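Appendix B, Record 12. Input sequence as logged:
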Amino acid sequence: MNRITNIVWDWNGTLLNDLKVGVDVLNDMLGRRGVAPLNINEYQKVFGFPVIDFYKKVGFDFSAETFHEMSVDFVETYARYEKNTTLNPGVVEILQQLNQRGIDCYILSALRQSELIKGVENFNLAQYFKAIYGGSDIYASGKVGRGVEMVDELGIVPAETLMVGDTLHDAEVAESLGFKPILYSGGHNDSVRLSKVGHVIDNFGELLNII
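Logged structural output:
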């Protein structure tokens, strides 16, 4: 494998510990629509992108409301729970160590750019990243296109790049962009699903043995 010079990080569920918040938000939304809630294990087994497909899978009725209406509801509901988010264990330490080793770090997220920047700044992490690429809308449709822009605009060499994420979609994005996927087991998909598509880590210190 080529020498690793870059790590592209996902945000929600990877750097940001919002798994429980994500489940609480979903169950809040489902409960108001008379749909049965999911526990964390059930959620990790079905969560995925594009989010519209995930919503259909868990019981949202698209004959009763539009995806736009659901997306607005998600944004407003998430804002009420957002204060309960933290960083995942070891995030600051690994970013410091990677910076010290001369590894360039980036963020690639489906989260809307303005919200992503706000979140990164709230946790005082901006100093660790060369660039931050978020989405352009509230629909969380995926991030392959945004990733292509990032590679082209910044001249990132895919063969020298790891992508660290927590979902099957992160593995798909990594494959599309030519990155090696590293998947964190503490996020929105469970390790059984993740192990089928990439190398799974349980803590970020394991990255130091990979680079």
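The two ends are 10 Å apart (CA to CA).
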